[in-house]
Design brief:
By secondary structure, the protein is α/β, with parallel strands linked by helices. It contains ten helices and ten strands.
């Protein structure tokens, strides 16, 4: 049984569909489709969308500038590699077009910069420069699951001491289980007073469970994508995470009745079909065929269909 560490019941969901979704083979959103996705997310009251990828900052900022003109309520964010030679140029432009951004520093010794001392030095130098361009700058640590814990805590603490407004822990390979996520997030949270986010991949099918474990360990926010779109096996599904949190009394602000239409909109835009058996939004989620279900079908359902705008269906076929 997980002990709820954080007394806060509010969890911020940062949607990464317009970044992670574009890492899916065969998916390529036009500018018009990107705007459509952003409006669907805004209508569903998702508080933040990630629209700038670290490998193509200037290209994505062209879309961010277009999105600014739409006057949506949703906040925009993006990612920048702290060790990139063009980091300062990217930071100056990003600060003009986004509400906030995060500096990425891989914490595995297999990715450059290779030495821990260099990782900390470069991150802090870039963070100091960033805070002169934008008031809301966070840091993120890819491969955190494989990092030395003492180093992860040290670089996180130094970043916060230098003004980082948020820390994101990435399970980049999707290799953790909920118990490991709980221990990892709890340990990091004990050392930090700043908001802590968790970014989960679904390679072992545990991204939703891992996201819930992170919240129970004290995470203040989660990265999600609609329909779980993302690199390889995808990311934590917005619809699964939002509903699971809502059923447990956490506040995300997300309009749950919009989840089905949001999922359908992303399905059409991405061209990737959602399984009829998909949790929360699958076509069969409230279809009952077994004779044993007919008297009290609600006993076989995890939640009331009205919560997400579904209707129950009984069938003998």
């Amino acid at each position: 049984m997980f002990e709820l560490i954080s007394p806060a019941r509010k969890v911020t969901l940062r949607d990464s569909t317009l970044r992670e979704g574009l890492d899916v083979a065969g998916v390529d959103f036009s500018t018009g489709q990107r705007l459509h996705v952003a409006k669907l997310l805004d209508r569903t009251n998702v508080p933040e969308i990630e629209v700038v990828a670290p490998g193509k900052v200037f290209q994505d900022l062209e879309f961010a500038e277009r999105l600014q003109a739409e006057g949506l309520n949703i906040k925009t964010s993006g990612l920048i590699y702290a060790f990139n030679q063009r980091a300062q140029e990217e930071i100056k432009e990003t600060g003009r077009h986004l509400h906030r951004f995060d500096l990425l520093m891989p914490v595995t010794p297999k990715r450059r910069p290779y030495e821990n001392a260099d990782k900390i030095r470069l991150l802090l130098e870039t963070l100091d420069f960033s805070l002169r361009c934008c008031a809301d700058v966070g840091v993120g640590f890819p491969q955190a699951a494989q990092a030395d814990m003492d180093f992860l805590l040290a670089i996180s603490s130094e970043a916060v001491r230098h003004g980082a407004q948020r820390v994101t822990i990435y399970d980049t390979s999707g290799s953790l289980d909920p118990f490991e996520v709980y221990r990892l997030i709890r340990k990091v949270k004990e050392d930090l007073k700043t908001p802590l986010f968790f970014h989960g991949h679904n390679d072992l099918g545990m991204a939703t469970a891992n996201s819930l474990a992170a919240v129970y360990a004290g995470a203040d926010g989660l990265d999600v994508t609609v329909n779980g779109l993302g690199d390889r096996a995808g990311n934590a599904s917005l619809e699964q995470v939002a509903l699971s949190l809502g059923l447990r009394g956490f506040e995300t602000g997300v309009v749950l009745k919009n989840l089905k239409s949001l999922s359908e909109g992303i399905e059409e835009t991405s061209g990737l079909r959602v399984s009829k058996l998909a949790p929360v939004v699958g076509e069969n989620i409230f279809v009952h065929k077994s004779p044993g279900h007919m008297e009290h079908p609600e006993l076989f359902e995890a939640f009331d269909p009205e919560i997400v705008g579904f209707e129950r269906k009984l069938t003998d076929r």
